[in-house]
Amino acid sequence: MILITGASGFVGSELVKELVKRKKRVRCLLRKKKDINTEVVYGDLRDKKSIEDAVKGVDTVIHLGALILGSKEELIDVNIKGTKNLVNSVDKNTKFIFISSIYAGIENSAYGYTKRKGEEAVKAKLNNWVILRPSLIYGKNDFFITRIIRARVMPVIGNGRYKNQPVYIKDVVNAIIKVLEKDVKNKTYNIAGPHALSYNKMLDIISEEFKIRFLRIHIPFTLINFITKIYKTMFRNTKLPLEQIQNITNDKTADINMAAKDIGYSPISFRQGIRLMGE
């Protein structure tokens, strides 16, 4: 039996479909009622009782559940304490796949900090874990690229030369399934696209493939940084991801060679993924 947390999210819903298609026995931990073709336990990562119910009879856990937007306290509550609740409830030899983030390697990010601490909790308690660190995940109905496609006016912070390594949703799902199928454990893998692209190049590719033009308005990073610092001072409990806004101009690239070698990870290019979004 495979337990999936975060099953109603962008990656989780695609993963559940694929596992059901492959006739896998799946149980989902959900906070709210949803029409889903698997066994379901309703609960929350912060509720130890519901987690204990969810892990009964489970031999594999895929931990996708996380909070991305929220105050630092809320992020800690879900991403650190919630992960610890789950880790403490499973047998130490349970196969545990933790979906972390490339942000775990970024020091001054509250979200990254909580994902990094989640990783530490997994490593400290379990004997059979794999951590996947995806970069920016995109695909149909995603949070970021879909909004860019719909926009006609596109703010660009700074010079737009900072790099990311976006990864297509199905490549992330395939990576998780490969980890399920392969005899790998106690490894951390970066799950990113094959090429690092500047933000300007990403916009160029989207524009070319969807045959749309953006009015690009460049906003100086110093201005964004100044505004976010003031906002953070005035509204200390804001749910806006201010550290992530301030980190926009940092390169977010990753070496995927270990994932390619160990699990046969082979992602498609950003241009190919954008074409698939248009189909």
- How would you classify the helix and strand content by structural class? alpha/beta
Q: Please state the average pLDDT score.
A: 89
Oligomer: single chain
Unreliable runs? none
CATH fold title = Rossmann fold
Number of strands: 13
Overall helicity: 40-55%
Task: Work out the helix count.
Answer: 11
**CATH architecture descriptor name:** 3-Layer(aba) Sandwich
Helix-strand topology string: EHEEHEHEHEEHEEEHEEHEHHHH
Write out the CATH superfamily name. Answer: NAD(P)-binding Rossmann-like Domain
Question: Termini distance?
Answer: 34 Å
Domain module count:
1
Q: What is the 3D shape?
A: globular
Strand order of the largest sheet: 3-2-1-4-5-6-11
Per CATH, the class reads Alpha Beta
**Alpha-carbon Rg, integer:** 19 Å
